[in-house]
Amino acid sequence: MMNDLMQAVGLPTSLAGMAHLTGEAPVLRSSYRVDAAAQASIAASGLAAAA
User: Fold this and answer.
1) Distant-in-sequence, close-in-space partners of 47: CB < 8 Å, separation ≥ 6
2) Which of 10, 36, 40, 50 is deepest in the core (most CB within 10 A)?
3) Which element (helix H / strand E) includes 12?
4) Which of 33, 34, 3, 32 is nearest to 19 (CA)?
5) Model's pTM, two decimal places?
6) What is the CA radius of gyration of the chain?
7) How would you label 24-49 residue by residue, b for 16+ Cβ within 10 Å and e otherwise?
């Protein structure tokens, strides 16, 4: 998921390896994986700001 986000915004996918996503899933009970999407998008925005 991180590689896809990096590619979508035009950043090198090598940045995705700098993020370490941890925690138990699902945090939010849903038929959609909103917890994983939220975690990945927050990490991707931090990496984009640092790039």
Assistant:
1) 6, 11, 15, 16, 18, 19
2) 40
3) none
4) 3
5) 0.66
6) 11
7) eeeeeeeeeeebeeebbeebbeebee
- pLDDT tens track for 18-39: 888 887 766 677 778 788 888 8
Distance CA 13, CA 7 (A): 6
**Residue count of the chain:** 51
**Cα separation, 13 vs 26, whole angstroms:** 26
- Residue the block writes with tokens 């699902």: 26
Rounded alpha-carbon distances, angstroms, from residue 17 to 12, 29, 31, 33, 41: 10, 27, 28, 21, 14
